[in-house]
Structure formats: C-alpha cells, structure tokens
C-alpha cells in the first residue's frame, strides 16, 4: 500500500490541467454496451475505478482497450448478463451497467453494490425506474435480477428522500433509449455528468431532450450506433485544485476548470475571500485576502456538491471564525473530521452538521484516508500544515484523482509517494 508524504506551507504556483471526469467516464463506458458497434471515448482519466469498469465490461464479453487516455470498446458479442459481486462490490458506479445491459439484452443480473464508508446507499430509485419501464425485478442472493420481454417507455418520478439520484437517472436513461415509446423522468438529476451521458447517447443515435433539467424526455429508438466522444473535465478535481491553490496562498491557473460546472462552489469560495478570475480555458487563483468563514449546505446540482464538502472543510479549518457545514446528501459523510482534528483542527460534528472553529494553522501529522474525497481533504490539510504529514491508505485517492501528487508537484508542492 502507498502513502503520501507532504511537507506543507509552500505557496503553489503555475499551471495545472484538469483530467476527464471520473463520474462521466464510468457511465459513458457502460453505455457502450448499448451498441454492437465500436465506440471511442477520449479524455478518460487513468484511475482505479475506470480500470474496474473496463474489467466489468470485459467480463460481459466486450472488447475494451485503454491507452493514452482513450478507451475503445466494441460490445459486438455480449456473452454474459451478470456483473459479479467480486467486481461490483469494489465500486458502486459499476451498478450502472444494469440499465444498458437490460436495454440491449432485455436481461441483467447485477450484484447489489452495498453500502460504503460514507453511509447507506440504497438503489430503490434505480429499481423503481426500470420497473416503470416494464421490467420484472427479482432481488435474490445479493443480486438484482431483472428481465423484460420488451421495455416500454413510461412517465416516472425519480425523486428520493435526499433529492434526485445521479446514477439512477443514468441507469434509467440507458435502459429507456432502446425502449418502445416515450419515457419522461421527473426529478431527474441535473449534474453535468448526466448531461454528458445524454449527449453521448444522442451522438449514438438516441433521442433524449431536457438533460440538465429535472425533466428528461427519451423517445425510444430501435438501434444505436458507434461513435467518438470526449469526456468533460472533472469539476470535482478542478474544485480541489482551486482549493489547493487558495489554501496555500498560491497563484495558479487551473486549465479545464469551468465556472458553468462549479458555480455554487465558486460562489462560496469567493464569499470566503478566495480571489478567482475567469480566464480563457480555465480559472486563475490569485493570492487571497484574509479568509472569512462561510456556512455551506450540500445539495444536488446546481447546489454545493457533496463531493467538495470534505475539501472545503479543510479550508474552513484554517479560516479564523466559526463556520457550519451541513451535509444533505450523505448525512454520515464526516469520516475526515477526526483526522482533520488530529492535525489541530477544531471541528465538532452534530448530526448532519459540522461546526468548525477555524485556526490560524494546522500541524502535520500521520493521518488515514477513509474515502475518496476525505483523502483529498487530508492532502489539502497537508499542503497548508506546518511540518510533515503522512496520508496513508491512499488507494482511495487513486480511485478518483489522476496523478494528483504529480500535478501538485508541478505547482511546487513538496509531496511524494512512498510504500507503506
Ligand atoms: C453520484 C456520484 C458521487 C456523488 C453522488 C452525489 C458517480 C459515479 N458518483 O453517486 O460521486 O457523491 O452522485 O452527488 O456519479 N439514493 C436513494 N435511492 C437510490 C439512489 C440514491 O435514496 O436508489 C440517495 C443516496 O443515498 C444519496 C442521494 O440519493 O443520499 C444521492 O445519491 P446518488 O445521486 O444516487 O449518488 P450516486 O449516483 O451513487
């Protein structure tokens, strides 16, 4: 297992480029199951989760090659409709092969992904959606087994207790593109990654409209064809790099960071005193003024993303004053609190709220990554802390950030990887 060593308190300077979005790339790769023709997806980040998805597609019979950020997939012969527990249990997003398999084969058996460290993660909305399309669903021995003689378009409402669901919207959209007739998804997720998937499916010949709004309409077609497509930049990586620049009083250009995907986060960053400039092709951070505490509530897009909650908590930990962060998507997503406190932060968790009393600085310490975004928060803490920080269990980070330490090194950070 690897760990990251960081010697902090170095202002970052220079230019860094954001990789392709993990949360777009994963459903896009799954969507290639919908055609027997070849698809070429560009700007795919080389991440552990992407490689897991490629393994799943191969296990189903697709041919898939990944080199130089480009994945070529040809799902001419699908030999299995079962996505096994062994692979699905390592990555929740693999559940999104359910929709395309069902759409193409009219049968899909996919292991239930189970919960994870950030809390219970049900799949009831996915199941509600595919049942509405006429599929029979049988949950047995840890698998969702579903089949349909024919899928029929239908109206449906996919809102849940915590709002819309990104992967449920993706799954249902992928099942519905080859269904007979029209599907209308109300309370659809509006995330840019859902829009990216809809745009890709349309390029394959689907008829989807309304993506990016809470009402998506899908007119079923008989056949999809192969195509080329480029994944959008990763807005969460972009936001994390912006905070890396800001927290170290740096002067950085984040190429590929786009305001239109990050407006709620940028609004809070600016309210906190970060100096942000929109520049052609990305966003520039200038050395900041004094920081101010801000209160933040995570919400589905276009609200403040839950995937940036841990990272902004690090910023608030070094912002004198009191700030309150409320987590509305995953009320238990606070594993980073104890680790940040080990570095000298003063954070108290109270149900879905974290109350942070900002300090002048943090001090380096050995800490343990618990999940993907918590790992990023600890790296940010290491960058601003005085002294040496060791972040262990960074396999979580490798699931979702492509070469993060190399990108930070390029900006002048003293960060490197060692074997534990
Ligand atoms: C996606 C992202 C993840 C992000 C999350 C929320 C991918 C690969 N992952 O995950 O990084 O943190 O969106 O922005 O795109 N829910 C239900 N029933 C369901 C499905 C979800 O109640 O059937 C709940 C979840 O427990 C959660 C909320 O809905 O409270 C949102 O979850 P969802 O949008 O589905 O998250 P994912 O799509 O799994």
Fold and architecture overview:
The chain is built from 14 helices and 24 strands. The strands form six sheets. A four-stranded mixed β-sheet has the order 22-23-1-24, with helices on one face. A four-stranded mixed β-sheet has the order 2-15-17-16. The N and C termini lie close together (6 Å). The protein has 420 residues and is an alpha/beta fold. It has two domains: 2-19 and 233-419, UDP-n-acetylglucosamine1-carboxyvinyl-transferase, Chain (Alpha-beta prism); 22-230, UDP-n-acetylglucosamine1-carboxyvinyl-transferase, Chain (Alpha-beta prism), CATH 3.65.10. The protein has helices at 22-31, 48-59, 85-88, 98-105, 124-132, 166-176, 192-203, 235-247, 259-271, 309-317, 335-342, 372-384, 395-400, 404-410, and strands at residues 2-7, 13-17, 38-42, 63-67, 70-74, 82-83, 107-111, 136-140, 143-147, 155-157, 182-186, 207-209, 215-219, 228-230, 251-255, 275-279, 282-286, 296-297, 321-326, 346-350, 353-358, 366-368, 388-392, 414-419. Helix 1 (22-31) packs parallel to helix 2 (48-59) and helix 11 (335-342) packs parallel to helix 12. It is globular and about 65 Å long. Helices cover 32% and strands 26% of the residues. The model has no long low-confidence stretch (mean pLDDT 96). The structure holds uridine-diphosphate-N-acetylglucosamine. Uridine-diphosphate-N-acetylglucosamine is lined by residues 23, 26, 92-93, 121-126, 160-162, 165-168, 189, 193, 306-307, 329-330.
């Amino acid at each position: 297992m690897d760990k990251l060593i960081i010697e902090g308190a170095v202002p970052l300077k220079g230019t860094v480029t954001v990789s392709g979005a993990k949360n777009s790339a994963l459903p896009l790769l799954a969507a290639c199951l919908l055609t027997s023709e070849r698809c070429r997806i560009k700007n795919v980040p080389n991440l552990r989760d992407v490689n897991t998805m490629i393994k799943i597609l191969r296990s189903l019979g697709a041919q898939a090659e990944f080199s130089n950020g480009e994945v070529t997939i040809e799902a001419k012969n699908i030999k299995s409709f079962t996505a096994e527990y062994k692979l699905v249990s390592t990555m929740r997003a693999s559940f999104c092969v359910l929709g395309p398999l069902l759409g193409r084969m009219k049968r899909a058996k996919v292991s239930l992904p189970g919960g994870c460290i950030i809390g219970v993660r049900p799949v009831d909305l996915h199941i509600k959606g595919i049942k509405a399309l006429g599929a029979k669903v049988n949950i047995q021995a840890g698998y969702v087994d579903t089949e349909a003689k024919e899928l029929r378009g239908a109206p449906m409402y996919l809102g849940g207790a915590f709002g819309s669901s990104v992967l449920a919207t993706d799954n249902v959209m992928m099942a519905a593109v080859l269904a007979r007739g029209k599907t209308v998804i109300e309370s659809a997720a509006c995330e840019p990654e859902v829009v990216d998937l809809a745009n890709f499916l349309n390029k394959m010949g689907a008829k989807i409209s309304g993506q990016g709004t809470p009402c998506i309409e899908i007119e079923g077609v008989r056949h999809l064809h192969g195509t080329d497509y480029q994944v959008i930049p990763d807005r969460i990586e972009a936001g994390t790099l912006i905070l890396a620049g800001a927290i170290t009083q740096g002067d950085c250009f984040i190429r590929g960071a786009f305001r239109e995907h990050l407006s709620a986060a940028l609004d809070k960053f600016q309210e906190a005193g970060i100096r942000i400039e929109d520049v052609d092709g990305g966003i520039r951070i200038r050395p900041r003024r004094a920081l101010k505490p801000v209160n933040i509530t995570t919400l589905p897009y276009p609200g403040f993303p839950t995937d940036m909650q841990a990272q902004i908590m690090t910023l608030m930990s070094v912002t004198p004053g009191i700030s309150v962060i409320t987590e509305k998507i995953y009320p238990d997503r606070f594993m980073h609190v104890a680790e940040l406190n080990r570095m000298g932060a003063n954070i108290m968790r109270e149900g879905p709220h974290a109350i942070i009393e900002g300090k002048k600085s943090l001090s380096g310490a050995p800490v343990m990554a618990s999940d993907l975004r918590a790992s990023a928060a600890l790296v940010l803490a290491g960058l601003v802390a005085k002294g040496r920080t060791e972040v262990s269990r960074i396999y979580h980070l490798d699931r979702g950030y492509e070469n993060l330490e190399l990108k930070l090194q390029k900006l002048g950070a003293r960060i490197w990887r060692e074997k534990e």
